């Protein structure tokens, strides 16, 4: 039922690091790999797939614990998520790609860059931040994991939707709100809790920033609260030659709230990086 509501693409899965990972691949040309946010799935890239597939080889993936990928009940880390992404690149025989990571997708990109910088041709860090969690932030992760465990993904959606979308979007775009909720509710508790543990345990990426040598673009919604424009500015100041695009009238999910502006920023970055 949920699958029919959300997934219109043919399901393609690969065995990576002992689990089944679902992904979508389309188009040809320079590869662009899109890494989604917490607690969503590859379906959050619905406005990007048709915009980029005519010109590029695009790959969207359900990260471990999400969507139609396996969500094993075990300890998750962002390094492991980075290893899964590397496994997918190997599976698809992609040597180097441009990566677009939004929020948790950005945290995974930092982990990926630390381990596999030679596989990164360029990166877009969208609505994300380099800092690790504070003690207070870790406590909030623990509390959300308990909500997921006791009340299920619907209760997580209740907490997350107001953090992900602007109040104007929530009031005036019920269809988008419904899509975001459906993505969240389609995830398993094991994956949600696993992600929360992984994000709570993630490394501080501030010391990495001035060592990033690939072309990098930062995008942030002007109304983003979980990863506000000040965090984006900090990354833009410290990553050599990075540029920053602030998207008006968008909160945390800037790719869904303002897909046209988001796509323009990504397209001009990718065209420059692959020239
Ligand atoms: C996300 O969108 O991936 C999350 O809001 C990130 C986080 O909770 O730190």
Helix and strand arrangement:
Layout: H1 2-6, E1 12-16, E2 19-26, E3 31-35, H2 49-52, E4 57-61, H3 78-91, E5 97-102, H4 104-116, E6 120-126, H5 135-151, H6 153-164, H7 167-172, H8 174-185, H9 189-200, H10 206-209, E7 216-221, H11 229-238, E8 243-247, H12 254-257, H13 259-273
Helix pairs in contact: 3-4, 5-6, 5-9, 6-8
Bound molecules: D-malate.
Distance between the termini: 44 Å
List the strand order in the largest sheet: 1-2-4-3-5-6-7-8
User: What does the largest sheet look like?
Assistant: 8 strands, mixed
What integer value in Å does the Rg equal?
17 Å
Number of strands: 8
Q: Write the element-wise H/E pattern from the N-terminal end onward.
A: HEEEHEHEHEHHHHHHEHEHH
Q: Unreliable runs, pLDDT <50, ≥5 residues?
A: 1-5
Q: β content, as a range?
A: 15-25%
Class based on secondary structure composition and strand pairing: alpha/beta
Morphology: globular
Q: What does the oligomeric state look like here?
A: single chain
Instruction: Give the overall pLDDT as a whole number.
Output: 96
| Ions and ligands | D-malate
Number of DSSP helical runs:
13
Approximate helicity band: 40-55%
